[in-house]
Design a protein that fits this description.
The protein is of the alpha/beta class. The protein contains 25 helices and 18 strands. The structure holds adenosine-5'-triphosphate (ATP).
């Protein structure tokens, strides 16, 4: 069936030209609108599949206003604009378009963009249907499971989390009974770790006196309707209320309330709370509404199937054990951290992994993009096929084509053997294109071809080869800026950006620094065969306040260095200041005695020798060995090392593992 396209363009000649081109390529043009108002009318009447939108239009409505309407009606749209300035691009981006073409464009570009838009649209619709069907099934199963009310709430929380994010979820009857508080909920404390919060737990953690509870509850009556609050206003926090208590204790910034009506007419509410601003949208409410029948059925069970065994679940009922009910995914086992920004990124990772969708991972250098790419692969049906990484920045422009797509024997001087490229090597698996922003423009077209046609053309080959690969790309650049500068193809950007995942820089998730530091410290001490005696308070304090421009990789390197320089008896110390420009003081105490001087001298000498041994990978003798570099006899160096407790073997292993 022909796809119906609506043209929204106020320049008659351009619009007419577009119509002719579209018809020639097999599309049906369902109308031309010169203003937003006309377009609204045509939308109702013609129900097009795709709309081509000029941004500036006659009349009050702009193309961007219209786009919001199209999105809510699930109609795909592509912007056609002469304007590519950054502000407009950003505004347009916020409407999540299916494509963007800058005028003047070639017919061919328009056709490619329409293809991409349709692919993205179908993919999202199909995925949505599949996802919702599965969700419904899972909720129904949870309702019929032999479990307590509390366990059922946890089950529902886990099912909904990838679709409706939260840091804390509670549920209970409304209006509130001020004499008896029965809300139950879960606080998220890790990727798949939750802490049960009932009345007792709430009182303990919020330091609220039992006697004060009725006052708090009396001020906490909620609307009977669905509510979204994306920024809690201060005035809501003037009187003591449940919201004030939760916002203060858990740093809640936004929330969503979803009520369902039970068979007996009572209203049972779900409260989703987030530590981020602007998290909740009408799409979340629309999804909950579609799931309403199964959520209502589950709520009946939650309300009336609580059994006495419930209280045995957590006999202490206390907040002493923060481990909650833990089922962590092994695919994330090397990912440390529980900051809500990291968890939000991991939620997206788990959500997209099973599908074949391309993923674009964004984030500063060293934030863990490669690790997330690997998790996507491991969580996908492709996990037993290869995961091939290509660092687009590290391969010289002249070699990149053959590296990616391979070559035939004799294809160019030096091609003495036929060679498979990375895409062919990864057949059935995943190709991770790291630093995709560095890829030359002519290679970008070829990647687009892999995405669209699923085929590659080895250099010197005479026919294209079909490949079955999933592409996961990453960049620390702002690709939109690169598009605006003409360094990155807009069509490739749109095709890759179907599912973006952004990783937060370490300075925005400081609460994870301590856990990461201990994880790396233990790892390196184990690797260097040294006992781990903790980390000094001053080192930890410095690390907690530092900005970490190199993110987790830099933190990892700092801990590695501290572990190398550690004597195996004391806690790890910071041996250089974190900017790496000058050494940190060797000891925190003042130098007052001759012994202090000797100790500092000994430390300095030790550090210097260690730095040389690291360079030579522990080699003492021969040309460019440590003794030659230090300009002393090898035997003298060996006895100094013995005196200073430096072990050659430490360097053999450490150098091998030092990361770039
Ligand atoms: N959450 C985490 N927990 C533990 N280790 C991590 C975490 N995130 C990253 N790392 C470690 O930090 C280092 C850098 O991570 P990775 O290489 O994935 O970052 P990247 O964003 O891909 O960096 P670049 O942009 O420079 O390629 C790796 O050694 C990785 O194992």
């Amino acid at each position: 069936m022909k796809k119906k396209v609506l043209i929204v363009e106020d320049e008659f000649i351009v619009a007419n030209n577009l119509r002719q081109v579209l018809q020639r390529f097999g599309y049906e043009v369902s109308g031309i609108a010169a203003s937003g108002e006309e377009a609204e009318e045509l939308l109702q009447r013609e129900k097009p599949d795709i709309a081509l939108l000029d941004i500036r239009l006659q009349g009050k409505l702009s193309g961007i206003d219209l786009a919001r309407k199209l999105r809510s009606e699930h109609i795909a749209f592509i912007y056609l604009s002469a304007n590519s300035n950054r502000k407009i691009l950003e505004e347009a981006r916020a409407t999540e378009p299916y494509g963007f073409l800058v005028k003047p464009f070639r017919k061919k570009d328009l056709m490619v963009m329409l293809d991409i838009a349709w692919y993205r649209h179908m993919h999202s619709l199909e995925a949505r249907e599949r996802r919702e069907h599965l969700l419904q099934q899972q909720i129904e199963e949870a309702a019929h499971e032999d479990a307590t009310g509390r366990q059922k709430i946890l089950k529902l929380a886990r099912i909904l989390l990838p679709h409706i994010p939260f840091d804390f979820i509670t549920s209970g009857l409304r209006p509130l009974n001020t004499a008896q508080f029965d809300d139950k909920g879960y606080l998220r404390i890790g990727f798949d770790e939750y802490q049960f919060i009932g009345t007792e737990e709430l009182l303990t953690i919020t330091n609220l006196k039992k006697a004060a509870l009725p006052v708090v509850l009396a001020n906490s009556q909620t609307d009977i309707n669905t509510v979204i609050c994306n920024e809690i206003q201060d005035e809501k926090l003037h009187v003591p209320s449940l919201l004030k208590t939760l916002a203060g204790t858990f740093n809640i910034r936004s929330y969503l309330v979803f009520p369902v009506t039970l068979n007996n007419g009572l209203s049972f509410h779900y409260f989703f709370y987030s530590r981020r601003l602007d998290v909740y949208t009408d799409n979340h409410i629309a999804l909950l509404n579609r799931l309403r029948p199964s959520i209502t059925a589950l709520s009946e069970r939650i309300m009336y199937e609580d059994d006495p065994a419930d209280s045995l679940l957590n006999p202490a009922g206390a907040f002493t054990n923060l481990q909650g009910e833990t089922v962590n995914r092994p695919e994330f086992r090397n990912i440390i951290g529980s900051h809500h920004l990291l968890l939000a990124a991991l939620d997206l990772t788990a959500q997209v992994a099973p599908h074949n969708t391309s993923v674009l991972i964004l984030g500063e250098s060293g934030t863990g993009k490669e690790q997330v790419a690997q998790s996507i692969h491991l969580l996908s049906p492709r996990k037993n096929a290869p995961f091939i990484k290509v660092n687009c920045a590290a391969i010289p422009a002249t070699l990149i084509e053959s590296e990616l797509f391979g070559h035939e024997k004799g294809a160019f001087t030096g091609a003495t053997e036929k060679r498979k490229g990375k895409f062919e090597q990864a057949d059935g698996g995943t190709v991770f294109l790291d630093e995709i922003g560095e890829l030359p423009l002519e290679m970008q077209v070829k990647i687009l071809r892999v995405l669209q046609e699923k085929e590659i053309e080895p250099i010197g080959g005479n026919a294209p080869l079909q490949v079955n690969v999933r592409i996961v790309a990453a960049t620390n650049r702002n690709l939109e800026e690169e598009v605006a500068r003409g360094n990155f193809r807009l069509d490739l950007y749109y095709r890759l950006n179907v599912f973006p995942i952004t990783l937060p820089p370490l300075r925005e998730r400081r609460s994870d620094i301590e856990g990461l530091a201990v994880y790396f410290a233990e790892k390196f001490c184990r690797e260097f065969n040294k006992p781990f005696n903790g980390i000094t308070a001053s080192m930890m304090e410095t690390m907690l306040t530092y900005d970490w421009p190199g993110n987790i990789r830099q933190l990892e390197n700092v801990l590695e260095q501290s572990a190398i320089l550690n004597d195996g008896r004391s806690p790890l110390e910071l041996r250089r200041n974190l900017t790496g420009t000058s050494p940190a003081p060797l000891a925190t105490t003042d130098i007052k005695t001759l012994d202090d001087v000797k100790r500092v001298q000994r430390e300095t000498e030790r550090e210097y020798i260690i730095s040389i041994l690291r360079k030579t990978a522990g080699r003492i003798r021969g040309a460019n060995g440590a003794a030659e570099l230090l300009n002393i006899k090898p035997t003298t160096l060996e006895s100094k090392m013995e005196k200073l407790d430096i072990k050659k073997n430490d360097f053999l292993s450490s150098t091998k593992d030092i990361r770039g």
